[in-house]
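Notebook B, p. 112. Complex prediction, attempt 2.
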Amino acid sequence: MTITITAFERSPDGGKGLARDTRVRWALEEVGQPYTVRPLSMQAMKEAAHRCLNPFGQIPTYEEGDLCLFESGAIVFHIAERCAGLLPAEANARSRAIMWMFAALNSVEPAILEIVVVKFAEGDKPWASERMPLVFDRIRQRLRPLSDRLGEAEWLDGAFSAGDLIMVSVLLRLRLSGILDEFPNLAAYVARGEARPAYQRAFVAQLAQATGNPAPV
Amino acid sequence: MTITITAFERSPDGGKGLARDTRVRWALEEVGQPYTVRPLSMQAMKEAAHRCLNPFGQIPTYEEGDLCLFESGAIVFHIAERCAGLLPAEANARSRAIMWMFAALNSVEPAILEIVVVKFAEGDKPWASERMPLVFDRIRQRLRPLSDRLGEAEWLDGAFSAGDLIMVSVLLRLRLSGILDEFPNLAAYVARGEARPAYQRAFVAQLAQATGNPAPV
């Protein structure tokens, strides 16, 4: 079955791996599924043809035969459910791995994405500089309990899972802010995720795309 | 198997059904699973005993035998996976229903919860009144494509699913703002969700809790 995902024709982050196609590429690499990429310009993402696939006009989408999905969490979950390697077999452990996916996307990522609002959507507003420390404090309110829970463990709950894949993908975005370094165990956790060969392959592929030299995948 | 969930001892919304235990109660009612509620004070939610269940110190949690989950999306998914009635049997339709759960929690709810930041977390800041229209505009940017996608359909993708349950639960919070009425098909969609007997039972149960008269469930 051929898998096609969409990604930015040129990622706005210049290839830092922050666009959400990276987490989908990572999941596909973890389970050894080949895929092709259909790059989209910013304009094409907002057009009706793409909104048929994702009403919110964003990347990534995922096409496999008759199935079309959007929403990176849902795509990673679909891959994890179909292919071995990203969810534990034991029922309770599986439910907890899925729990960490939802936690990353609903309890951690929204606080982190507020940085984008302050910097870009409201970057020209007089309150931008005063708001940034407040946004950072709300991020810390999420990172502190996450750090406490992780402790000295390698991954959030036993073996590496789709929960870790999404959580690392969400935390990655904080690298440049310096906040991650306030929680050394979380910084090390992210580094462990990035060191995985599957992540490396995904990163190289998105970088090649972002810099205009897409390698064959 | 006994199911125990946690909820606010007294919900800060006074029983409007906006606390996240309501969506878990609703899912349990849809599939006909009895449950008991362990109410928690604001203080108890932040203590170590509860943080063992949910590191972020929030409600709801879900206990069933050896399994303990937090994160309302993960709990609703767990219920939907175990019990018939909230996910379609056909594989692709099932994946799309799960996609709508993630979309509600990651692409719609964060924009809506910014209202809480403006009103409460930053309610005393000089920029609060000027920011509110910007937050509302970002909510509209999510509601417009959602409204276009829903069109005149009853539910997001065929029969009522866990995707609709979460999406309606997320949109409910907008009722008081008036924004929902700008998209009559979404307002009608939410009303259809609320009219379901299972939602009604969940709502009555959380209201009784919030007002100090918990009915037996």
